[in-house]
Design brief:
Chain lengths: 391, 347
């Protein structure tokens, strides 16, 4: 009899907690649906288990505010529906503040078609050992105008912890990203200012990419400065097929086909394979079928950064790392350019025309190699003095 | 156990009662719309309400669907050869999702889960859903979504049990979205160009709509496009049926005006660029949804194609479509697999 009553109590509390969770989901989802423009949705302190995406749609001037990082925790560990934890779409002037999103089955926080989206003191994380089953993106504003990510934390994303794609007018600052494949990634985006962040122990610290076949074709006017980008030697755990799966373990900054970048005053330290790489889309080996796409990087200035690395061989396990290691052994240069230039941007002597140059000057411990990727790496070698603009 | 379930339900209902949303403009109960005559669960259309069906419908967890349209009195729709018909303001589109107890005997012992309504207002389309009560005497407006355990015996005689998810109001727009405006997905003339059993007998729907004044400016019938029936090879080639299946199941998001435009994967039947509909296309933000595959469609090899992978997984972060698919559509997966496996690798 006693055993029986314990069982009843146990089952009762189980039912209660399932019901309470469902209550939380319904209560806050209803609030988000019914919120009048200008509303502030306050999330209480505690850990709340959600089974479905929480979504905000078609609203203006809404704040969703928790009691702080790791004080208000939205756990999606048992998520059964929805492809992201939190989703905001077709909105204006949205502030997300003071909460943690854990273990979303897909992306943690996706915001699409939002004009002015701010993340302040928000953490997204996947608990446990980082692996390919983790969601792709932590912070995922896409096709937004006016993005601010400030004092945020991203851990464990199987693609990028902080990702801004196909967006305009972006600030990423004071934020921390670790144990992601890419710490911070800016993709096909215009006017981004990425500064005073710490990106460490990812596969790659900061990526700036332009990819083909997208609606917003071209990124540019991007500044990456005063960041601490260090120890990004985490083995790549991205599911194959994703572009970040080709990022070399040990990458500090990687620039893919982007134009118009200023990279300065960063500490780029102990990224053991490629402190900074500059490559065209051709070097990814992927097919290009997009006539409007420009696969070449150009108009890049890298200056006044600090480069350091520990002694030893590169840590990348991919084919390119193997080629580089064979060539340079434990004397790997910090900066690599694949050597593929847009022929339309060169003068008759083969120099960049004015304003299109890749300039690498005044960096502490600067050392540069050209990969000669277009000739199967045959001409790979040091090119320390080839990145001063002559026009 | 029964007692606990009851307690849970009571708590749930209590919780629900004080957070009951108010949607001022719309009836709280489905019966208040006056869509059905007689016993509501028979879904017998009232006067002016016309049932319709699509040649290749959207798959939703094996749910059977009963669709109805109600135009404003005296109103009609202009014929359009492409896209969803431009229904006049005041139109109601109604869709009930139900399960027959035994799929080998469809229509008997139906369990109606929800009835979704799209109403065309001056300011645009509005979407809402009504969740049916256990006794099937009515359905209540539910904006925050719900889930229900659904049981049925499938066509192979196997007992199936799963969690059916009623979308919340925001999720309606996850699919019904054209440049951030809510839009119907299904009823185009091509999709309606098929036979339906009316109370008056079997008839082609376009003819029926035309003869009843619902559809005007209809051209010669031989010129009207016709969506093939995805699982009927007599209605179209493998390619045509696969493209029709992908169009109705995916293209509401995966097109240039849809929420999945960010992916660059476009699946309307009218998309002719092979890379745009996935052939040898690398993913953009698939994340774990890539399943380790390199391209959306690898001609000749469905197993190596992300589209196939995402159709046959039930992980919510990986599966496609994102919503309304807790159960794999085995027959749909088979169709797409065959299509990809037989595709020529020349692109």
């Amino acid at each position: 009899m006693k055993l029986f009553s314990y069982t009843v109590i146990a089952l009762f509390s189980f039912s209660f907690s399932v019901s309470a969770q469902k209550d939380f989901q319904k209560k806050y989802q209803s609030q988000l649906i019914l919120a009048e423009d200008g509303a502030v949705i306050e999330l209480p302190e505690g850990t709340f288990t959600l089974t479905n995406t929480l979504s905000l749609e078609g609203k203006k001037k809404i704040t969703i505010r928790g009691k702080g990082i790791d004080k208000t925790i939205l756990s999606f560990k048992g998520q059964t529906d929805g492809a992201e934890g939190l989703r905001v779409s077709d909105c204006e002037n949205i502030l997300l503040e003071g909460f943690t999103v854990e273990d979303a089955k897909g992306d943690a926080i996706k915001t699409m078609h939002v004009k002015n989206i701010s993340f302040n003191k928000v953490k997204v994380t996947w608990l446990g050992t980082p692996g390919p089953e983790n969601g792709g993106y932590g912070f995922y504003p896409v096709q937004c105008e006016g993005v601010t990510i400030d004092h945020c934390v991203a851990i464990g994303a199987s693609d990028a912890g902080i990702y801004v794609g196909q967006s305009k007018d972006i600030i990423v600052k004071n934020s921390v990203a670790y144990h992601n494949v890419a710490g911070i990634e800016i993709e096909n985006s215009l006017r981004a200012d990425v500064y005073e962040n710490e990106s460490y122990e990812n596969t790659g610290g900061v990526l700036v990419f332009d990819l083909p076949n997208l609606v917003q074709k071209k990124g540019g006017q991007i500044k990456v400065h005063n960041n601490n980008i260090h120890d990004n030697n985490f083995p790549n755990f991205a599911p194959k097929g994703n572009i970040v799966a080709m990022v070399q373990t040990g990458t500090g900054i990687l620039i893919l086909a982007t134009k118009g970048l200023d990279i300065y005053q960063n500490k780029i330290v102990n990224n053991q394979t490629t402190s900074t790489g500059i490559i065209s889309y051709y070097t990814t080996g992927k097919l290009i079928k997009d006539e409007a796409y420009d696969p070449f990087p150009s108009a890049i200035s890298i200056h006044d950064n600090l480069y350091e690395r520990k002694p030893g061989l590169p840590v990348g396990t991919d084919a390119l790392s193997a080629i580089v290691t064979r060539k340079f052994k434990d004397n790997t240069p910090h900066i690599f350019f694949d050597g593929i230039k847009n022929p339309k941007l060169l003068d008759e002597k083969g120099n960049w025309i004015a304003g299109q140059c890749i300039s690498i000057v005044n960096n502490q411990n600067q050392s540069i190699a050209t990969l000669d990727a277009q000739n199967q790496f045959k001409g790979m070698g040091r090119a320390d003095d080839s990145f001063k603009c002559v026009n | 156990m029964l007692r606990n379930t009851t307690i849970a339900i009571v708590l749930f209902v209590l919780a629900g009662s004080f957070i009951k949303p108010s949607m001022h403009a719309y009836p709280e109960k489905l019966s208040d719309w006056g869509i059905f005559d007689g016993k509501i669960s028979d879904m017998h259309p009232a006067k002016g309400v016309v049932p319709y069906a699509l040649n290749t419908p959207l798959y939703t967890d094996y749910a059977e669907k009963a669709r109805f349209v109600r135009l404003p009195k005296g109103a009609s729709v202009n014929y359009a050869s492409e896209n969803v018909l431009d229904f006049p303001v005041g139109t109601l589109l109604v869709k009930s999702f139900y399960y027959s107890a035994d799929f080998r005997h469809p229509g008997i012992d139906k369990n109606i889960i929800e009835t979704r309504i799209l109403v065309h207002e001056t300011a645009g389309w509005k979407a809402m859903t009504y969740v049916w009560n256990e006794t099937q005497t009515d359905a209540e407006l539910e904006i925050a979504g719900d889930d229900k355990t659904v049981k049925f015996i499938d066509k192979a005689g196997q007992q199936q049990s799963f969690r059916y998810v009623v979308p919340n109001q925001n999720q309606c727009k996850g699919c019904h979205n054209n440049n951030d405006k809510i839009m119907p997905i299904g009823p185009s003339v091509a999709q309606l160009n098929g036979t339906l059993a009316y109370a008056s007998g079997k008839q082609n729907q376009i003819e029926y709509w035309q003869s009843n004044g619902l559809l005007v400016n209809v051209p010669q019938h031989s010129t009207i496009p016709k969506t093939p029936v995805w699982n009927d090879p007599s209605t179209g080639s493998l390619n045509a049926r696969a493209r029709a299946y992908l169009a109705i199941n995916c293209a509401h998001c995966h097109r240039k005006e849809g929420p999945a435009q960010t992916s660059g994967l476009f699946l309307p039947e009218s998309e002719n660029e092979t890379i745009a509909y996935g052939v040898n296309k690398t993913p953009i933000a698939a994340g774990n949804g890539s399943g380790g595959r390199l391209v959306d469609i690898k001609p000749g090899d469905a197993n190596a194609s992300i589209i196939w992978y995402r159709m046959q997984t039930t992980n919510p972060g990986e599966r496609m479509p994102e919503l309304g698919r807790n159960l794999v559509h085995q027959e749909g997966v088979t169709l797409i697999k065959e299509w990809i496996d037989k595709m020529n690798n020349k692109d």
